[in-house]
Amino acid sequence: MSSFREVPRPIIALGTDYPDGHVIAAHRHDRDQLLYGLTGVLMASTPQGAWMMPPQRGM
User: Which of 24, 47, 52, 54 is the one with CA 20 to 30 A from 1?
Assistant: First the structure.
């Protein structure tokens, strides 16, 4: 399969490493997401609010 969007399962896992200070432009997802940061701090913002997530926590 060429894309995780085509995986016929209700739950999948993806791993990605980002460098310090990496910013991802505003976007949407077709599926719900659980974010988990093993190391570093994750900051997420939406029109409803902004959140800062410490390492080893999920959002």
Answer: 24
